[in-house]
UniProtKB/TrEMBL annotation:
Protein name in the entry: NAD(P)H-dependent FMN reductase
GO cellular component term of the entry, any: cytosol
Molecular function via GO: FMN binding; oxidoreductase activity
A Pfam family it matches: FMN_red
SUPFAM superfamilies, sorted: Flavoproteins (SSF52218)
Tree of life domain: Bacteria
Coiled coil: none
Length: 195
């Protein structure tokens, strides 16, 4: 059975670089062959900051989400694995990504998440450290290896990273994600996650 990989573009900023990284990753993921790939761009999603009264964990399927969030919710629900593409804003990840996470709960549970980050000198690593922390709270399984693109403004050209090893590094992350996606899908099918 083919696992579904959902690539989430976390940046919604005007003039953002995120879609360049996201397109390249989607290309790598499709070439990898281990996944059905869907790209979700948070810029296309209605993401209010004001949440409903009940937490999504308790409200379950009845959680009252806006109509413009339905495609995101369906994508997260159907995913067997996630690849989150994030920039670094003030040593963390963008508010758009936090809103997308907080509007959901079970959709993340017992599923693997890998990260691709970009930024200045730290390559977005501060954002990823925070995301690992937050997603663990939702019972997601974060992958140790990730793709880091420091000083992306000097290290990408024509939609591609200049580093010749980047496709090899992407394959390593995708292989690990595929391994976890298989393992956790089988486990979820066998018994509901006790969390
Ligand atoms: C509000 C804001 C804060 C930023 N803070 C950081 C930072 O802490 N570290 C960093 O490496 N880059 C930082 N940057 C620069 C971003 O890495 C750069 O703008 C990048 O293009 C953001 O990704 P995006 O274009 O997809 O939105 C910041 C940019 C913005 C807009």
């Amino acid at each position: 059975m083919t696992n579904k990989l959902v690539i989430i573009l976390g940046s919604v900023r005007e003039g953002r670089f995120g879609p360049v990284v996201g397109s390249w990753l989607a290309e790598q993921a499709r070439a990898h062959g281990g996944f059905e790939v869907e790209v979700v761009d948070l810029a296309d999603v209605e993401l209010p900051l004001a949440l409903p009264a009940a937490p999504p964990k308790l409200a379950g399927a009845e959680y009252p989400r806006p109509a413009g969030m339905a495609a995101l919710t369906a994508a997260l629900e159907s995913a067997d694995a996630f690849l989150v593409v994030t920039p670094e804003y003030n040593h963390s990840y963008p508010a758009s990504l936090k809103a997308a996470i907080d509007w959901h709960f079970t959709q993340w549970t017992a599923k693997p998440v890998a990260f691709a980050s970009y930024g200045g000198l730290a390559g977005g690593r501060h954002a990823v450290l925070h995301l690992e922390n937050v997603l663990t709270e939702l019972h997601a399984v974060t992958i140790r290896d990730g793709l880091v693109f420091p000083n992306y403004f000097h290290t990408w050209q024509d939609g591609q990273p200049l580093d010749a090893d980047a496709p090899t590094r992407a394959k390593v992350v995708l292989d690990q994600l595929a391994w976890w996606a298989d393992a956790l899908r089988v486990a979820r099918e066998k018994a509901p996650y006790p969390g």
